[in-house]
Amino acid sequence: MTTPSDSENTALPEDNRSNPVLRLRLWPAIVLVLLQVAVSYAFAGLGSTNIQSVVGLAVVPLFGTILLLLWWLAASRAPFRDRLLGLAVLVAALACIVFSQERNGEMLLVYAVPAMTIGAVFLLAITVRLRWPARRWIVLAFVAACTGLFSALRADTVGGNLAPLVSWRWSPSEAERSAALPLAEVHETAALPAAAGPGDWPAFRGPARDGRLTGVSFSTDWSTPPRELWRRKIGPAWSSFTAVGDFLFTQEQRGGDELVTCYRAATGEPVWVNRVAARFEDTMGLGPRATPTFDQGNLYTQGATGVLQCLDASTGNTIWKRDLAKDADTKVPGYGFSSSPLIVGNRVIEFTCGHEGKNAIAYDCATGEVAWTGGHGASAYTSPHLAVIRGVPQVLMVSDFGLQAFVPETGAPLWEHPWKVKTNPRCIQPLVVDGEAVMFGATGVSGSRLIRVEQAGASWNLEEVWTNKRFRPYFNDGVLHKGHYYGFDGDRLDCIDIQTGERRWEGTRYGGQLLLIADLNLLLILSETGDLALVQAVPEHFMEIARFNALPGKTWNHPVIAHGKLFVRNAEEAACYELKPPTNPA
User: Fold this and answer.
1) For the residues 487-505, what does the mean pLDDT come to?
2) 8 Å CB contact between 372 and 410
3) What is the mean pLDDT of the segment spanning 56-71?
4) Dist. CA 581–CA 76, nearest whole Å
5) Mean of the per-residue pLDDT values for the chain?
């Protein structure tokens, strides 16, 4: 029995025998396309980590394209001249797309290559009854249309799964939007308390830098979403808010300047602006990465290019300024300086990604003079973390080296746990468990680990309790609640038994960041797409009880709750929502 793809000229009319119909051998290409789509979806659609996404988005299509080209050149039955022409047209089309862009042109190939190759096979399959010249022109026209379409797009940045986020080339870029934002020249004074108090959010991830709130309760009936109190455009940054008294502090990029800004919490109106001539941009986005820290009336800020400042929090005036890159004898990391300043006593401590012995630097809070340096040279996208382990205060530093602990006042090393990673930087904060153990991890092939820390006189002993290579956190911090860790395997929310490392449940792919509302046994999640969701923090099951969209665009910034209000922001907008008190039962 013959098939349309393999039969050539059986029973052709006499008049057509001098001009036979060309039948390509299409079935191998169709099989390759179906396999490519299925495997890509398995990795990118069903996986949760950025490594799996890259395999599905780029690696599988690359191999699929190579196999399709081998089919086309060696087994397609197309005329030899047309095989060479097809290869040349594809190469020229992809080069046109890449070189038509000012930057990130190669990122568009993630979409353009599969679109052209799979689309071409599809068109060859549905035009099987047409003569070869017509089919050839249809495919060439399709490739030309794809070239025009993708050349009209712009790869702006990437999502948490490293998939390119695109827009039309004629739409304003993030940098253009940043430069066009109006900036009021305000020099007002914020009436602030001498020290942070109850209900304030004075630092990255809160007073204890653990994303945990106690003594906070609100209505979880979001059938009508919380009332929006204000919304405003804001400059790009992945900084979060710091909230003290009636005021908010954050960082943003406006044109060629990095800003530290103070806003009124009630209205979102600006109070003061501190600006530094600095600009940082990579494929992750534009602007600062760190969150300001409030302490004793001062505000400590870290810019993406390395400018560390101590500001008068009431006025925004600079008290002292340092260049972290110069002090650490290093260059600006590929993803920028991202460490949110940690204040311990009269020390402000920063992670530098510097050379050996300068990976962490502590400055005198009053003068800005270097107090100590230390640590192994390694990179990371984390911040120093204050912990009390076995009753001893210590600063924990998570990096690609592993985990290190220092005496806060002097920088003297206490203990270290080497666990190096090579694929991606470690990006989440360490989690201290019951004052005797620490959990940390990384995406890729590393996973997560819990180590128990014991003190024996002047020495410290470490014991690995468990390692789970199937729980791979990336940029998304987690929280501990009643013996269970709620965090992200890549971008998928999971619940982990902290004693065993075993997964209790697997939830939705939110990405983004979360807070624990301990008194309500709830997680408040601000997803990568700007949705706010409430999820039960219980180990028995995954249950989302409410969700609404709070912000447009990619959202990587941590949410903040302070004084009955919920503050959210991303690289485009900031908004404030009212959290109503819980309804009393009848």
Assistant:
1) 97
2) yes
3) 96
4) 69
5) 93
Model confidence at 207, pLDDT cuts 50, 70, 90, reads very high
Q: Which two tokens stand for residue 328?
A: 């650490």
From the list 33, 27, 31, the residue with the least C-alpha distance to 120 is 33
Phi, psi of 584 (to 5 degrees): -70, 135
**Comparing C-alpha atoms, which of 239, 422, 271 is closest to residue 337?**
239
β-pairing, 318-323 vs 484-489, is: unpaired
The DSSP secondary structure of 45-58, one letter per residue, reads: IT--SHHHHHIIII
Q: What is the pLDDT of residue 421?
A: 85
> What is the Cα–Cα distance from 219 to 100, expressed in whole angstroms?
52
Q: Report which of 50, 38, 3 is spatially closest to residue 489, judged by C-alpha positions.
A: 50
pLDDT (tens digit, 9 = 90+) per residue, 377-424? 888 899 999 999 999 999 999 999 999 999 999 999 999 999 998 777
pLDDT score for 216: 95
Q: Which of 561, 549, 555, 541 is nearest to 486 (CA)?
A: 541
Measured from the Cβ of residue 552, the count of other Cβ atoms closer than 10 Å reads 11
Rounded to whole angstroms, what are the CA distances from 304 to 300, 438, 460, 466, 471? Answer: 14, 28, 35, 35, 29
pLDDT tens-place string over residues 162-184: 999 999 999 999 999 999 998 87
Sign of CA dihedral 507, 289, 374, 393: negative
Angstrom distances, CA of residue 391 to CA of 109, 162, 206, 244: 54, 41, 22, 29
Residue pair 519/500 in contact by the 8 Å Cβ criterion: no
Pairwise CA distance, residues 577 & 364, whole Å: 37
DSSP 523-578: EEEE-TTSEEEEEE--SS---EEEEEE--SS---SPPEEETTEEEEE-SSEEEEEE
CA distances from 39 to 43, 120, 346 (A): 6, 19, 55
Tell me the pLDDT band of 323, cut-offs 50, 70 and 90: very high
The pTM assigned to this predicted structure is 0.92
Q: Is the confidence at residue 312, as pLDDT, over 90?
A: yes
Angle, alpha carbons 361-512-425 (nearest 5°): 40
Q: Three-state DSSP class for 417?
A: strand
Burial class of residue 346 in the structure, from the number of CB atoms within 10 Å of its CB (0-12 exposed, 13-18 middle, 19+ buried): middle
Q: What is the spatial order of strands in the sheet that 347-351 belongs to?
A: 342-344, 347-351, 360-364, 370-374
Residues 6+ apart with CB under 8 A from 411: 360, 362, 371, 372, 373, 374
User: How many angstroms separate the CA atoms of 549 and 532, rounded?
Assistant: 6
Alpha carbon distance 182, 232 (integer Å):
11
Reported as a single tens digit per residue, the pLDDT across 223-254 is 999 999 999 999 999 999 999 999 999 999 99
Q: Which residue has the tokens 């089309």?
A: 93
Q: Quick one: pLDDT at residue 7?
A: 37
**Do residues 432 and 394 touch, judged by C-beta distance below 8 A?**
no
